[in-house]
């Protein structure tokens, strides 16, 4: 399969309406009351929810996911902590990576009100207007809790060489199974010979 046909398949995946009926939504309290006589379902719900204080989650149908920080981790260096903008996109250059370096991304986020099902990360990168990378990863399903969650992505290596160095633009999104977007940001970054 050629690179162009792979890219087309990835792009088409975002536009396909699968018409999947996920069924009615229930508040967390309603979900716990349903099938309470089924022992295996009760244990599964307890395992999924852990130590959630049901009285603190309220009667909200929609989960709330708030991203607290994004971090770039590279061995032998302090983590680059990227604060998530409250509104809009980061202004100017957001970060710089060293060419040929190993790194991983880590996301810290808070889940409130209800279970978020099928939280997915997508990231698309362009250089001089040409799409050079696209990543999609299922992060998982999370219950509301007081402590934030942290998810670390698999390690990657930045490209290297004369043509790899320079400015890049990117778009990162976090959406759930219901196609609700929790973070959608566009930003720019550089790849250089050395870390800044």
Automatic annotation (TrEMBL):
<dbReference type="InterPro" id="IPR000406">
    <property type="entry name" value="Rho_GDI"/>
</dbReference>
<dbReference type="GO" id="GO:0016020">
    <property type="term" value="C:membrane"/>
</dbReference>
<dbReference type="InterPro" id="IPR024792">
    <property type="entry name" value="RhoGDI_dom_sf"/>
</dbReference>
<comment type="similarity">
    <text>Belongs to the Rho GDI family.</text>
</comment>
<dbReference type="Pfam" id="PF02115">
    <property type="entry name" value="Rho_GDI"/>
</dbReference>
<keyword id="KW-0963">Cytoplasm</keyword>
<feature type="region of interest" description="Disordered">
    <location>
        <begin position="1"/>
        <end position="31"/>
    </location>
</feature>
<dbReference type="GO" id="GO:0005094">
    <property type="term" value="F:Rho GDP-dissociation inhibitor activity"/>
</dbReference>
<protein>
    <submittedName>
        <fullName>Rho GDP-dissociation inhibitor 1-like isoform X3</fullName>
    </submittedName>
</protein>
<dbReference type="GO" id="GO:0005829">
    <property type="term" value="C:cytosol"/>
</dbReference>
<dbReference type="InterPro" id="IPR014756">
    <property type="entry name" value="Ig_E-set"/>
</dbReference>
<dbReference type="GO" id="GO:0007266">
    <property type="term" value="P:Rho protein signal transduction"/>
</dbReference>
């Amino acid at each position: 399969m050629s690179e162009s046909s792979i890219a087309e398949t990835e792009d088409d995946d975002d536009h396909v309406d699968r018409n999947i009926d996920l069924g009615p939504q229930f508040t967390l309290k309603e979900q716990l009351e349903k099938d309470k006589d089924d022992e295996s379902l009760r244990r599964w719900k307890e395992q999924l929810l852990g130590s959630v204080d049901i009285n603190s989650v309220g009667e909200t149908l929609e989960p709330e996911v708030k991203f607290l920080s994004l971090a770039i981790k590279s061995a032998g260096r302090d983590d680059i902590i990227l604060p998530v903008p409250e509104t809009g996109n980061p202004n100017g250059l957001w970060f710089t990576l060293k060419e040929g370096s190993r790194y991983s991304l880590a996301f810290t986020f808070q889940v409130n009100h209800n279970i978020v099902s099928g939280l997915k990360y997508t990231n698309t990168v362009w250089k001089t207007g040409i799409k050079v990378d696209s990543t999609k990863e299922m992060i998982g399903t999370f219950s509301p809790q007081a402590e934030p969650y942290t998810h670390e992505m698999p390690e990657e290596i930045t490209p290297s060489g004369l043509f790899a160095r320079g400015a890049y633009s990117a778009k990162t999104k976090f959406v759930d199974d219901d196609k609700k977007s929790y973070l959608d940001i566009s930003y720019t970054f550089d790849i250089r010979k050395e870390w800044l």
